[in-house]
Amino acid sequence: MVRKLLRHLPVTLWIVLVLIVASSAQTRLTFTTSSLPNATVGSNLQMRVGASGGSEPLTWKVSGGKLPPGLKLSAAKGTISGTPTATGTYNFEVTVTDSSVPPIQVQREFELVVTAALAIDWKQPPSVHGERLEGSVTVNNFTGQNFTLTVIVMAVNEIGRATALGYQEFALPSGAEHVITFGASPGPGSYVVHADAVAEVGSTNSIYRARKQTADPLVIQPPE
């Protein structure tokens, strides 16, 4: 009797039954990525916002907030890629949609912190000691790679004449900090001091730059 009834079920009802069975067999659509690692300015980045379950194919989109400048989210793969261009903490929402009818969606908030790859700062701000300009800088390697670093500290007077106060070239390991002292006698005048650091990663052909400059001129008086 039951078999006879099943044989006479309308085709549309059979389709509904098949869809219900298929839907119940699907796993729930969920995110498999809960947080994102930090990134550094100027570094090539590729990370995936993982998701599983639902009916494939899945699609990804940024549904709130903004990615860091220089990065984009692949709609088909869920990968965030590119080269970050600005430091900061960026909060955004990602929505993943499956191919069910009607489609199922899930959302999750993410935070991505972008730090400077290379930093330089005054340890002892430049100051005048008699006829000399002296001070020191601290440099930091915030990347995950060792690099070769060149640091030059210059004093530039009111007519644009530059005098080197210090220069070093050395290897700086990942995560390391280094202090460089500098000093020279550039002669009487009003000087702006700036320190420039340039790092090069040979394995990736990446170059990072950082600069620090005094806000106010430093004056060396002529000898009496």
Task: Describe this structure as you would to a colleague.
This protein has 224 residues and is mainly β. The chain has two domains: 89 residues, Sandwich (Immunoglobulin-like), CATH 2.60.40.10; 103 residues, Immunoglobulin-like (Sandwich), CATH 2.60.40.10. It is 9% helix and 54% strand. The strands form five sheets. Strands 12, 13, 15, 16 and 17 form a five-stranded antiparallel sheet that branches. A four-stranded mixed sheet has the order 2-9-8-5, with no helix packed on it. It has a three-stranded antiparallel sheet with strand order 3-7-6, with no helix packed on it. Strand 15 and strand 16 form a beta hairpin. About 6% of the residues have low confidence.
Shape: elongated
Order of helices and strands: HHEEEEEEEEEEEEEEEEE
> Would you report the number of β strands?
17
Rg of Cα set: 30 Å
Instruction: Please give the share of residues in helix.
Output: under 10%
CATH class of the largest domain: Mainly Beta
Low-confidence stretches: 13-25
What's the end-to-end separation, in Å? 120 Å
CATH-defined fold name of the largest domain: Immunoglobulin-like
- Return the average pLDDT rounded to an integer: 89
Strand content: over 45%
Examine the secondary-structure arrangement and name the CATH architecture of the largest domain: Sandwich
Individual helix count = 2
Give the CATH superfamily of the largest domain.
Immunoglobulins
Derived structural class:
mainly beta
| Whole-number count of domains | 2
Largest sheet, if any?
5 strands, antiparallel
